[in-house]
Amino acid sequence: MTHALPYRTHNHAHCVTDAMDEARSLCQTAGTRLTQLRAQILELIWQSHRPLGAYDILAILNDQGRKAAPPTVYRTLDFLQGMGLVHRIASLNAFVGCSQPSHNHNGCFLICEECQNVLELSADSIRQAISKETGAQGFKVRETTLEIAGTCPACINKDGGKNGAQ
Amino acid sequence: MTHALPYRTHNHAHCVTDAMDEARSLCQTAGTRLTQLRAQILELIWQSHRPLGAYDILAILNDQGRKAAPPTVYRTLDFLQGMGLVHRIASLNAFVGCSQPSHNHNGCFLICEECQNVLELSADSIRQAISKETGAQGFKVRETTLEIAGTCPACINKDGGKNGAQ
DNA sequence: GCAGGGGATGGTATAGTGTTGCGTAAATAG
DNA sequence: CTATTTACGCAACACTATACCATCCCCTGC
Ligand SMILES: [Zn+2]
Ligand SMILES: [Zn+2]
Ligand SMILES: [Zn+2]
Ligand SMILES: [Zn+2]
Questions:
Q1: Number of structural domains, chain A?
Q2: Which of A110, A141, A146 minimises the CB distance to B150?
Q3: What angle do the packed helices B54-63 and B70-82 form, to 10 degrees?
Q4: What is the pTM of this model?
């Protein structure tokens, strides 16, 4: 199978099974059900470190013989988002697995436009800067969308400045 | 007419005409044409400090007797974005006028979920924090999407903590 | 004035993304 | 085993965005 590895090398089989284990555990604790469908979709998302669109997921499900229509996918994604297991990337209309589902995380995403990999940062310093600015404005934050598109280190090295990276 | 004022009080008629003047001037300098349609759409967007969806704009245009189809609106929005005169808010699929079109600006947007007003910040300190983090990751930034949803000061005062604001 | 060229606009069709509503099935509770 | 809740299948629809082609307008050179 041809999935993308993230530019930070790691044991991908482990990373997927670890994520699934953690998801099971989190749902257990929360008293929610990680059903077969939910697990299947979460695993699909983790298999690809790339963001997957809802209709990408739909296509894969149907390939795998599971009959599904859009609402099935969106409902499941809603659940997974609610549990903090996946994030939606607004600038891509796509979804990625959350790497720190136990912590609360105002995700900050580094999106490589060449290899499509997404790295989620915790980025406390950014969060602090944001909270300082919004505080100064008297603005009460509910949710922060921070998505940074560019080129990852691996791709910068790979094409030696070819695509604007230097 | 029923447009929303931003929560920072200001002379709205001025703010719109100023924005239009600056737009004309910028296009003049750049050697591009701020045609009647482009000016009309830019003004529509400025009239409302709320983000307007492309189809909102389309509806208003048609109300105003100008026949338009989606591509007309999107083309015009592309132009205005290219000139830095409007920004697209990814988390809303909507567009707002840029308050500082002359400066380069990695827009940071405070979006009030009650009154729908959007305030664009320059937020140098946030930009610095982001650039520091991405630098540490060896990530080359092309574009930053920073959209903060919450409650603006005016709405916090208005409903005295009713909606989670305190 | 007249032809040519490039940017801007009109218009149809279609692709891509997300939601509503309702009925059925499966799991949990009593 | 029945009642209740929760999840799933499915059809239809709404919203967002793009591809493609034709026409028009404006400017320039002749
Ligand atoms: Zn992995
Ligand atoms: Zn990359
Ligand atoms: Zn104004
Ligand atoms: Zn407000």
A1: 1
A2: A141
A3: 120
A4: 0.91
